[in-house]
Amino acid sequence: MRKSKTSLIFQAAIDIFSEKGFDKATMDDIAARANVAKGTIYYHFKSKEELFLFLVEEGIELLREGVESKLLPEMPPREKLELIVREQIHFFGQYRDFCVILLRESWGGEDRQREFRKMIRSYMLLIEEVIKEGMDTGVFQRVNAEYAAAGIFGMISIAALHILLGHAPYDEEVLFTDMKRMAFTGLLTE
Length: 190
Hints:
mainly alpha; Arc Repressor Mutant, subunit A; Tetracycline Repressor, domain 2; 2 domains; about 80% helix
């Protein structure tokens, strides 16, 4: 299949899953939106579930690679964590439909949840390593790094989804300022 057809199918699937949700979306809908035969989609993906998981995996990989490409070894842990927060917020703003799919549909069946956790885990490991580095250098408090990474990912993700599904404008700078404050100092004024 030519790259252009792959891109059309990919974008059509994102659009349809975002608009209709996984359960109501059909391969016919995706084929019609991509302007390709349904058989073309089935040639590459055995099922709607396989296509959906492929989209999620590609999106998470794009997020992880985007963040990794900007992290420099010489950056201090605080700066690294700020960069992660900023880049995740930017990514969700840039790929709004993907964000909606990822977060709204992640509560699907048990098999889908297991696959999602596996895919997201690769990104959360990146956050976890920065937290461990910060703890090792005495910059961050001692916490369970895995839970802290999940908390940071979740906090940013749910806040972004709340804005994207609501009516407020997606102001990346305001969201970054608030999420950075929550990640580094919490709600307390002391």
